[in-house]
Backbone:
């Protein structure tokens, strides 16, 4: 029984937090937009962040697990992991090369 408890504690300690941030240096415009998607089967597949309304690209993108993500990950034994994406569109430039 002691070995089972130690193994369960070790397994729980192997999960970590996930966070990725990208800053382009472009001037942000508009509000922060967000989306929640899932990563399946221990991260083998994941959803892409698509923002068709950002014509000039991104100013900032943050991808992370929401606070409740580890609970879902644990309950599904790693098959489903929610991922939260927040992004801000970049401001367009009015300079045109001729």
Residues:
């Amino acid at each position: 029984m002691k070995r089972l408890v130690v193994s369960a504690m070790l397994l729980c300690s192997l999960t970590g937090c996930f966070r990725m941030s990208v800053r382009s240096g472009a001037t942000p415009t508009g509000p922060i937009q967000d989306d929640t998607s899932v990563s399946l089967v221990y991260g083998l597949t994941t959803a892409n962040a698509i923002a068709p309304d950002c014509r000039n690209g991104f100013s900032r993108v943050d991808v992370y697990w929401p606070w409740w993500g580890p609970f879902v990950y644990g309950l599904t034994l790693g098959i489903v992991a929610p991922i939260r994406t927040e992004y801000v569109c970049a401001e367009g430039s009015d300079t045109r090369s001729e």
Notes: The first helix runs from residue 2 to 13. Helices lie at 2-13, 69-75. Residues 94-98 have pLDDT under 50 and may be disordered. The first strand starts at residue 19 and ends at 23.
